[in-house]
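Progress report, Aim 2. The chain analyzed during this reporting quarter is listed below.
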Amino acid sequence: MTLSTPAPLFRVAALYRFCRLERYETLRQPLAAFCCARGIKGTLLLASEGINGTVAGTEGAIGELIAFLNEQPEFVGLDVKYSSAAEMPFHRMKVRLKTEIVTMGVEGIDPLGSVGAYVAAADWNALISDPGTIVIDTRNDYEVSIGTFAGAVDPQTKSFREFPAWVEGHRGELEGKKVAMFCTGGIRCEKATAYVKSLGIDDVFHLKGGILRYLEDVPAEDSLWEGECFVFDERVSVSHGLAEGEAELCRACRHPLKPEELLSPKFQAGVSCPHCFEARSDEDRARYAERHKQVELAEKRGQGRHIGS
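Predicted structure tokens for the chain:
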């Protein structure tokens, strides 16, 4: 009797560190070479304000990368959250130079100078259950659509650049309140809370480690999280325990879809979904259908995902 070998798991590391990184341009090539030599894939962003990204590889390869990053004096204290994936969730390795490692577009916002108070996952429920707390989801609308905390405010932003304008428009509602913010891994809240504090609102908090740390540390039976958490890779979403979720991605508009949305007559794999059907023409859908066909043919030939996807 032959026992089947379990499929290898890939280790996924979501990481960031705000720091003074004057040599970020010269770090790009050696970091890319280090990752590629070990079969690591994903995206790392480098800027004068630090590093941010998510990568995946074997457990050994990711361990070597984190050790390498921790050897760089600027990255001491690197925030890393681990999860796993049954298949490699990225197609290639990219190391990019940016103006900001998370783009808000407001000059002078420095998380190294002032940020909201960190709240551990174990203490988050008590804070957001307080009637005097306004809970704000700092993520974009498509991320919020598949899951968020019970009672959280959704600013309905299309990008993080819109968040400061939303805050300005609701400033009067935030003053005098406890303001608790959260995001996927914690990095957006570093800037979001720094910005809110710069407006003179002092009672500001954010979930340390983000939703990912909460789903990892808080048991499902004690959780105030509803739905799944969108992630920026081929897993699409994760749930409690950071298990891969049930959401799928519309390959036409890149919007995450809940299982019930896959049953919609407006959903056709690779072609359309309830979020983009009305915004696309029959010609668009015909083009997407042909692209999806080529993707499937390429995968059957063992060539991986077609470049057009």
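The chain has nine helices and 15 strands. The domain at 10-97 is CATH 3.30.70.100 (Alpha-Beta Plaits). These observations will guide the mutagenesis work planned for the next reporting period.
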